[in-house]
Structure of Molybdenum cofactor synthesis domain protein:
Amino acid sequence: MTSRRLSTLISVDDAVALLADVFKRTMELEVVEERVLNALGRIAASDVTAGVDVPPFNRSAVDGYAVYAGDVVNASIYSPVELALKGVVSPSDKPPSECLERGEAVRVHTGSPIPCGADAVVMDEDVEASGSRVTVFKPVSPGQNVSRRGEDFSSGEVIVAKGTLLGPLHVAALSSIGVDKVWVYRRIKVGVLTTGSEVCEPGVDSECPTIVYNSSARLIAALLRSTGFIDVRYYGVFPDDPAVIGDAVVEAVSENDLVVTTGGTGVSEGDVLIDALAGVGRTVFRGVRMRPGRPTTLTLVEGKPVLNLSGYPVAAWTGYEAILMPAFKKWLGLGNLERPVVYARLARRTPNTVGYRSYIRVSLRDAGDMLVAEPYMLRGSGVLSSLLKSQGYIVIPENVEGFEKGDLVRVHLF
Amino acid sequence: MTSRRLSTLISVDDAVALLADVFKRTMELEVVEERVLNALGRIAASDVTAGVDVPPFNRSAVDGYAVYAGDVVNASIYSPVELALKGVVSPSDKPPSECLERGEAVRVHTGSPIPCGADAVVMDEDVEASGSRVTVFKPVSPGQNVSRRGEDFSSGEVIVAKGTLLGPLHVAALSSIGVDKVWVYRRIKVGVLTTGSEVCEPGVDSECPTIVYNSSARLIAALLRSTGFIDVRYYGVFPDDPAVIGDAVVEAVSENDLVVTTGGTGVSEGDVLIDALAGVGRTVFRGVRMRPGRPTTLTLVEGKPVLNLSGYPVAAWTGYEAILMPAFKKWLGLGNLERPVVYARLARRTPNTVGYRSYIRVSLRDAGDMLVAEPYMLRGSGVLSSLLKSQGYIVIPENVEGFEKGDLVRVHLF
């Protein structure tokens, strides 16, 4: 029964490091080729380098006439400059092989390659064209109205770094350099289940005498699914019977890279999960110095990681946010998984238990020229509504007794 | 040819209102029942109201003994209070029918229903139990360590409002009240295509003599796909031939609720899209007073909306962000589609053309106690890399000449 006790709590940082290390040792994450348009939410498995310049040549940013800027430096309405029209270059033409001579102009459209020699484009509205003559009424400076070759991306530049979580902008950037397929890690397979004889599964249990429904495991399943790089397998609820739980976890472990459980992590007699897992596996850590989510536990079963989160929704969420995601980030070198951080004034004093790292949900109010953060201090790591109503969270470090009213705090946005 | 000209620019707000109105008049958005776990990213089609309280009864938040707080008000190590143990209530038990009498205590675990009469729970560590006697060494106040019935959600409360974009927290909240299926709008079908004889499609065109690859339409397709409530059909690139474009748009319109095009919206001879659409449909508006994205155009083809965005990636993105998404929001009453807003100091003077609403990408730098916003003023609505490197954008209203260096600005985060 001693395994239930939380006698050797470790720090959040140590928990993250241990979990990342277990991921590294236990998971083989093959890379697969995926079409860029279907790679949203996936993780790049290698750097992608541009093989071309974007734009591929100096091109016009407007409709007008490509010129030597030096030819029209003194152009004005009172003393227009006449140039000889030397033809048309359309956006689908290659850059002309012949260079522009002094005193000449070439008709161009938005996107047209600029002939060598030309270094600027006079816009249509500053020109009068007639037959083979172009009359310019306004000067342009060198480079004006020209998109320089390689201005957006240059050949040899890393467009997407290994470890990037691919979003719509990466899809566009890869497409712009002509890339249609990209190497990504295969999706990580995560099994999710919950324990508790009192817990009913919506849609499965037709009656629920306790009126206690599973929300924590479904929250974790939905969070994992929304990342895009995880395949979630959802196993539902298992009663507080060590043999049943042991079998369920062993089965889930055989079908996944990682299993996440919620519930049963407490120290009371009904919480049999930890004993059940001790029977089929080995405990890596048991309890973390964080609030909420203190009983968070990591076990190895059949050589695979089983992360046990609290049965309380907010505590389970904290385990996801403070330990699971940072461990993925550390293991895979994820470059852009961070939540945006904003500064806000704290609306109320918010205490902390020294030695623990606290994750406090806050709602943000726009005070006109700054944000005010209202902390949710309801006892409740069970209080799911506090998560729904908040827009982010603050973290109080282990060595701090709390934040005072009016303190400037960093808010991690949902 | 006059249809090409941008002679009747309308405001961003008018463009959003017109597009939302067209959506309302042309789209029939049926509601479908979806399992909550599969409803991520979908839009709730009706309010969902709790039929139960969460928690369903007063329950213990800790392991310990349920008591009358009044009985132990004077308990201390020096004068402990003895109570009579009246049994055990486990988390899977129903609330006991018998009430607690004064002088009595009941063994409870985290999640156990509290018997009527009891109004607090003394934690294990403040108690010594021996046989039928419980000795309490510390007082508790009424309500202490008890999760009140309905504290999280109460019966009759709207848990998810119509028009909510469903995220992981909504999945959890719905699950906690026992809901497994939810009414959502069917996905909106959007066709995406691009035009431009010079544009190659990565993965389709084996050679690309112009070295100009389609990125704008792929950006829009990826953005739409990542919303979760849109089914994207991607049609690729079509050359600047009015008949070909007309046919492509008519076909796309027949298979979708909305068609979004990129490219060909300019006023030069090569931009034939607008004429092609004028031939098969009717222009609703042609040009918007915003920067970038000025040539954004709305056409009705076969009674369905066709939104024409600029071929420049940043300008196309602005049309998506400033017009298309706000129109969806307005039409469907989407409650939580807003990007988070933060305040930052502007690093540089940022001018605006009065009469236009400008959308300026910014990168954010954490200056220790505040954020500094560095605007990307590169000419380039073609400069996709500026979007990739920025973390959000600022909006300069029509009636403002620009923002000064050091101004406090609202940054909409990506």
User: Anything to note?
Assistant: The CA atoms of residues 55 and 358 of chain B lie 49 Å apart. Chain B touches chain A through 93 residues (CB under 8 Å). Chain B has four domains: 2-29+187-332, 34-54+152-184, 59-147, 341-413.
